[in-house]
Design goal:
CATH architecture: Beta Barrel
Distance between the termini: 6 Å
CATH topology: FomD barrel-like fold
Order of helices and strands: EEEEEEEEEEEEHH
Radius of gyration: 17 Å
Strand content: 35-45%
Structural class: mainly beta
CATH superfamily: FomD-like
Helix content: 10-25%
Shape: globular
Largest sheet: 10 strands, mixed
Number of strands: 12
Length: 213
């Protein structure tokens, strides 16, 4: 694989993509680089950004989502849920999403368990590990999608060993939350985009996987 070795610049638009275990693009978020350093990557996803997102074709509400091959379709969409600042520290298998409502009220954090960042010429690629942690502004937390992690192992999308490693990484995240350490103590909830920071766009090469040939 041919990686881009240099760091991205402040204000540069890049793609934050999720690949599944078959190396198919399953999610694309255009983001703007706020920081790309040896300490962290910080990526801004504003409301109204065009994205590509997966939609399950036969999901039964109230049951774990089954991300089996052929069970989903990738569709055009607009990011309309929350404004995000996605923060990932090198070497960690989790991202911390700092969340704000449309009227800029801090909503807390969201810990996304995932593979280590893979840098490409387009931006960053990851594989999602299903398990998440929702963290309220007062730092009360709860697990999310533990059943989906179990199902991923059951379906063979993850090995049992990887499933255990994901849970261990989630526990590290919880310990950091409870200590009010790391990213949670750095004041990112007060961050605001600087003018004239531009909204990221979805380029035509969003599905390019040639860097993995």
């Amino acid at each position: 694989m041919k990686d881009r070795l240099s760091k991205f610049c402040y204000g540069e638009p890049v793609l934050y993509r999720e690949l599944d275990e078959q190396s198919q693009v399953i999610d694309v978020k255009p983001v703007t680089v706020i920081e790309d350093s040896h300490e962290r990557a910080a990526l801004w996803l504003p409301l109204g950004t065009p994205v590509k997102r997966p939609v399950l074709l036969e999901h039964v509400p109230g049951t774990p989502r089954r991300w089996a091959e052929g069970s989903w379709a990738l569709v055009d969409s607009i990011w309309q849920w929350e404004e995000l600042l996605i923060i990932v520290r090198p070497g960690e298998r989790r991202a911390i999403w700092v969340r704000w409502s449309a009227d800029r009220v801090f909503q807390g954090w969201y810990v996304n368990l995932q593979s280590k960042l893979q840098r490409t010429r387009l931006g960053f690629d990851i594989r999602d590990y299903q398990l998440d942690v929702i963290v309220e502004p007062d730092r009360n937390w709860r697990w999310k999608d533990q059943d989906e992690l179990d199902l991923a192992v059951e379906l063979g999308r993850m090995t049992p060993e990887l499933g255990k490693a994901v849970r261990a990484e989630g526990q590290l995240a919880v310990e950091e939350i409870e200590r009010n350490a790391g990213t949670y103590s750095e004041g990112w909830e007060h961050w605001r985009p600087e003018v004239p920071l531009t909204r990221p766009k979805l380029g035509r090469d969003w599905n390019d996987l040639s860097m993995y040939d």
